Amino acid sequence: MTDNTGIRTVVFGLDGATLNCIRPMVKAGLLPNTARLMNEGCWGELRSTIHPITPQAWTTFLTGKNAGQHGIYDFTRRRAGTYELEFINASKRQAESVLSIMSRQGKRAGAIAVPFTFPPESIENGFMLSGLDSPAEDARAVAPAELYTELKEKFEAYYIHLGSPVGRKNDPEALWADMAREDENRTQISLHLMQTRPCDLFMTVYNNVDRIQHNDYDLEAEAALEAGEMPQSGHLVEAYKHADKQLGRILEALPPDTVVLIISDHGAGPIRKVFHLNNWLEREGLLTFRGEGRSVSAVRSSRELAKRLLPRWMKNFIKTRLGRMQAKIESFVFLSRIDWSRTQAYGLGMYGNIHINLAGREPQGTVKPGQEYEQLRDRIAEGIMALKDPDTGEPAVERVWRREELYDGPLMEVAPDLLIGWKDYAYYASVASDSGTDTIFSGHGKIDSSDFTHVGTHRLAGTIVAWGPHIKKGRINDARLLDLAPTMLYLADLPIPEDMNGRVLEGLFDEEFLKSKPPRYEGTTRAISGEEFAYSDDEAKGVEERLKGLGYI
User: Which domains does the chain have, with CATH numbers?
Assistant: First the structure.
């Protein structure tokens, strides 16, 4: 039986949305629905995770816990006992979601397209449609399973990632048409489920603001926005306007006395330089490559050429028949060029994650635990802190974190040993390397095999807008993504588990309401004991293509 106490909450997730874009667009009258909620409610910056990366950020949003407790740090992780990589999905998460917590306490909960929710949870009182880590847009992405048939019959498809630059020549209009079609599909399904399966907590996430920002949020767009002007090229403004239109349709369908939360998992801004982390480690004598650069470059060039030029039927044939070979090629390109017997440290991830080749942990570890490990971390941190932007001569790094400075919990041991805190997160770390080059900083690259230039990346400052009963008007300061799960439980009139790291965002609420209903912290979350889902080679390839299309790997 559903518990009828508490306040119904709708979360409108806008992946990557930044106030640096929203505020000037609101001022220009381009986002009327967002403007209404900001004027009548509470808003501010929402601090993301470190790094502000999609898997860790959305998982922290769902759990109210730091990565040391939920275990999700990046898109990939090193498979234990090997130097092979595996893609992350929600089965690797080892913390209970707010959806599960609410469901087992009699509340109804539903989620659409929240990233890193595959395999979908079997929520007793609700439903889940998985996000971008789903290997396919089919029944596997939906729980309960019979819901997929219903959506298929009514809407023909559930689009998770319809618009992607992968393999495209520079045709922004066609790309945008696909993204707009995906948004429309997301809204149609959201409205249908809000009506047919009403929830105490309902969340739906739109991804295309983030995708467009990777393509279009460059230094010129940043300068225009800072001057209160609208960028004249690309679809940056159009993406926000289209998202605002979807928000308006959701608002029209809301039942009375509903709290609306607009949230983003991180912010966005231009890439100023690309930093080639493994090249730097090689220059410092900490990493050694094998002499296989030409064959690797040939494999990479052939793959990109095929994705650009082959007809779709042939690409599908290759993907179906040669998926295992493709997966092996990617692994070869990425890590097998490293001579592990002569390597002390290596980089993984998109922002600068440095792993020590530690004896007893890595298969061919060369660095002894204890004093040698700590001295090496000190040496690397000192070298990274000395990095300068080659054009301006200004420091490129604000600080280097040791993992224990950011995370706590039983899963901290799988975290990177060091993490680079870039100045304003305006630098993008690449772990790719071509033999025979010693490039440390470079300009923009392309998004995978497309003609689309990768100009934008993530920032720590995301966005929160809250509107509805008992929400105060004005600004909120010091809001964290980590605090949203506790806040959603508070709105549902449920206690907040004491093992959550987050706390209720009391700054969102009227003082009288807080006095009449103070937050309760009691109990703990439920342990997660499910079997991890391992992608097949073909499924991994599909996830990989989707992430490359976003500019993430």
Answer: 8-270+458-549 (3.40.720.10), 273-289+338-443 (3.30.1360), 291-337 (no CATH)
